[in-house]
Amino acid sequence: MYARNFTFKTIAENRKIIEELADEIFSYTKSLQGFVSATYTVSEDETEYGSFTIWETKEDAIAAGASIREKVMPRLEGIVTAPPVISVMEVYEPKS
Hints:
The chain has 2 helices and 4 strands, in the order βαββαβ. The chain is an alpha+beta fold. The chain has one domain: Alpha-Beta Plaits, CATH 3.30.70. Strands 2-3-1-4 form a 4-stranded antiparallel sheet. A hairpin with a 5-residue loop joins strand 2 (35-42) and strand 3 (48-55). The chain starts with a strand and ends in a 6-residue tail after the last strand.
């Protein structure tokens, strides 16, 4: 399995907008090929947000990222305070 980690910064006043976007994009995300799970995060000061998604294959993670980015980035462009950080990593599951 592979994980896709997406984080971005904005101002705390945008939390409601970000939560609404996460609610909307989750329905789309879980319909994509290879989807396993998604977790959304908020920093304590409400200025850094993220999504951590798990995919069956690296190809699924990369394809999903491109597809999700098309839907998310136009909505984030006006509210992010720094470019988003995206990484794709292999998931290691401990044997014990």
